[in-house]
Write a structure and sequence with these properties.
CATH class of chain A: Alpha Beta
CATH superfamily of chain A: Oxidoreductase, molybdopterin-binding domain
Radius of gyration of chain B: 20 Å
Structural class of chain B: mainly alpha
Strand content of chain B: under 5%
Helix content of chain B: over 70%
Number of domains of chain A: 1
Strand content of chain A: 15-25%
Distance between the termini of chain A: 35 Å
Order of helices and strands of chain B: HHHHHHHHH
Number of strands of chain B: 0
Oligomer: heterodimer
CATH architecture of chain A: Alpha-Beta Complex
Number of helices of chain B: 9
Shape of chain A: globular
Number of helices of chain A: 9
Chain lengths: 322, 214
């Protein structure tokens, strides 16, 4: 039996905060006992952990683009079941390790085929447009899925302000790669910085969300703070986290997973139950947080956003351009 | 090692080998009985059961293979061989549950999905082959079989090395390119597999030296 959440309840009010509160109490306790002996480096780490945990409330308005009739994945699961390989390859690693990342000060560089290159401060970005709450399905290429109430605004709003040249056909997104803040960055054999990209029309699509928060609060570090992308009709790895650079190009930009295994991860990577991953089927998915025998469910073409995005790929062979 | 100590150790090994299963069984029971409570199996119970049975299978299998080379380190370690069969059977036990988890929670007991997976997915072919190899080994693990099969028993049971290698390949083929988690298992298995030729070489050298002294 699916129990639907009352739609008028703001998601921020059902955020389980016990986790945070416990840790904050612990940290405050540490500070109160005067842990000067820990040394400057160590203190920096703790202080940063504190600031990382201090998620701020975001004012959002509900978006008509949200999916309906889905149970939201819990805040706990969204923030403790992550792929963010710069912080380790285990699903629990990002929640354990991402507090070492500094999300202030933070800037996003805008480069490539634009009228004027610029560097935008995160606080400017946050205030650029009214923040919307968008409840989207999220489907990972590994075969699991969630339903997440993101907070952000359409990437198109920002792209318009970047004045890309008519020659710009693609947008590349680069994530932070800093050994100091990401000590686990060499744990895998992956080349960082993480790079992802979209065709300009995909980037301009209203569903494509420049994302700053979830459950009505700023993103926790492990979910890609302070700013990430969400492209709900594509496999999750297309949605770059902790973005530091947006680059406009006339050629398809190189993307991290495509470079690692081009036969498995295409540039488009639209969610498609009819195109298998070479090593596993994509016909079904496991919903995170669902009961054991109810986890498995069919995967929808374009992750259920076909009405809105299928026309972007008219005339394209989706098996060839997977 | 006195017999009583071996019996005592066997009880401990049984407990250690059963622990992962008992913990998983308890968590599964809890989650099914209390659907509203925080799931003890975590956010992805299907993966928790799959990993929670696959890892013990591989780990116990590799430990069972380590017995022979470790035993050769000293004459006083001969009693270790008395643990080999039980470890092998526990590895098979976990491999069976691992297979059942796949059949029900991944393939949904759906025949076309199974056929598709077994014909196309190399990690499933490798894993299933490993299980297929372990099956006759488990069935012929009785004293009666050992007597009955004689020399052929040993030849048959050498296949366990193939099963372990297939198990590791199965692991490498399911993780994403660039993920190096299976490396630890691979290194340990490689050491075990190399121990055999290494001992042969050491023995040959010793014999040569003795010959030279004469």
């Amino acid at each position: 039996m699916l129990i639907h959440r009352a739609t008028d309840l703001p998601s921020s009010e059902i955020t389980p905060k016990a986790d945070y509160l416990n840790r904050r109490t612990f940290l405050t306790g540490m500070a109160a006992t005067g842990v000067a002996a820990l040394g400057a480096d160590r203190m920096g780490h703790w202080a940063n952990a504190e600031s990382a945990l201090a998620a701020e409330k975001l004012q959002t308005v509900k978006s008509p683009l949200s999916v309906k009739g889905e149970i939201l994945t819990s805040y706990q699961d969204i923030t403790h079941y992550n792929n963010f390989y710069e912080f380790g390859t285990d699903k629990g690693d990002p929640a354990r390790n991402a507090s070492a990342m500094h999300t202030r000060p933070w800037t996003v560089q805008v480069t490539g085929l634009v009228k004027k290159k610029k560097t935008v401060d995160i606080d400017t970005l946050l205030k650029l447009k009214p923040m919307e709450e968008r409840i989207y399905r999220f489907r990972c290429v590994e075969g699991w899925s969630m339903v997440i109430p993101w907070a952000g605004y359409s990437l198109s709003e920002f792209i318009k302000q970047c004045d890309p040249l008519p020659r710009a056909k693609y947008v590349q997104f680069l994530s932070l790669a800093d050994q100091k803040q990401m000590p686990q960055i060499n744990q895998s054999g992956i080349q960082f910085p993480y790079s992802e990209g979209l065709r300009m029309d995909e980037a301009m699509h209203p569903l494509t969300l420049l994302t700053f928060g979830l459950y009505g609060e700023t993103l926790p570090n492990q979910d890609g703070a302070p700013v990430r992308l969400i492209v709900p009709w594509k496999y999750g790895f297309k949605s770059a986290k902790s973005i530091v650079k947006i680059n406009f190009t006339d050629k398809e930009p190189p993307t991290t997973w495509n470079r690692m295994a081009s036969n498995e991860y295409g540039f488009y990577s639209n969610v498609n139950p009819n195109v298998d991953h070479p090593r596993w089927s994509q016909k079904t998915e496991r919903r995170i947080g669902a009961p054991l025998f109810k986890q498995r469910q069919p995967t929808l073409i374009f992750n259920g956003y076909g009405d809105q995005v299928a026309s972007l790929y008219n005339g394209m062979d989706l098996k060839k351009y997977f | 090692m006195p017999n009583r100590a071996v019996v005592f150790l066997k009880v401990l090994v049984h407990l250690a080998c059963l622990a992962p299963f008992l913990i998983l069984a308890w968590k599964t029971y809890h989650d099914l009985a209390h659907p509203g409570a925080v799931a003890l199996l975590g956010p992805d119970p299907t993966a928790a059961l799959s990993h929670g049975t696959g890892f013990p299978a591989l780990r116990i299998l590799i430990i069972s293979l380590a017995i022979t080379p470790v035993r050769r380190l000293s004459k006083s370690l001969g009693w270790l061989v008395r643990f080999r069969r039980m470890l092998g059977l526990y590895a098979f036990f976990y491999a069976c549950i691992h297979l059942l988890v796949y059949l029900k929670l991944y393939a949904n007991l759906d025949w076309p999905t199974l056929v598709d997976d077994l014909s196309k997915r190399r990690y499933i072919i490798a894993g299933f082959s490993a299980w297929l190899i372990l099956l006759p080994l488990a069935l012929t693990s009785t004293k009666w079989s050992i007597r009955k099969l004689g020399k052929r028993w040993q030849a048959l049971h050498r296949l366990v090395y193939v099963a372990a290698v297939l198990g590791i390949i199965h692991y490498w083929w399911i993780v994403k390119t660039g993920v190096l988690d299976p490396l630890k298992f691979t290194v340990v298995l490689a050491i075990i597999l190399l121990a055999r030729p290494a001992w042969l070489l050491i023995d040959a050298r010793r014999r040569q030296r003795r010959m030279a002294q004469v």
